[in-house]
Write a structure and sequence with these properties.
By secondary structure, the protein is mostly helical. It contains 4 helices and no strands.
Length: about 100
């Protein structure tokens, strides 16, 4: 593998892991509330759930290696859109 390919692989894996951890945190919060209140959520519970989902902190990206190749590629690769992920789950909460 070339250094550029290795750098891209590390960056993509890092982005996928960060997105997975963020989705997992949101899903845990939703499942916790559903376990307590059941599938049919009242409006006040739904509002509180949405507020708690909004309060979940966006995970930090790992620090890229000092290798020159990673640093060059890091800024060219688009980052995960955490706002879009959050919005998907907030829309899903409306169906509960």
């Amino acid at each position: 593998m070339t250094p550029t390919t290795q750098a891209l692989e590390w960056i993509v894996d890092s982005h996928l892991e960060v997105a997975r951890l963020y989705r997992l945190a949101i899903e845990r919060e939703i499942q916790h509330v559903i376990r307590i209140y059941g599938n049919n959520l009242r409006d006040d519970v739904r509002r509180a759930l949405k507020a708690s989902v909004r309060d979940i902190a966006v995970p930090q990206y790992p620090t890229p290696d000092d290798r020159e190749t990673v640093s060059l590629v890091w800024h060219k690769v688009p980052k995960v859109n955490f706002e879009r992920i959050r919005q998907e789950y907030l829309e899903q909460i409306n169906s509960y």
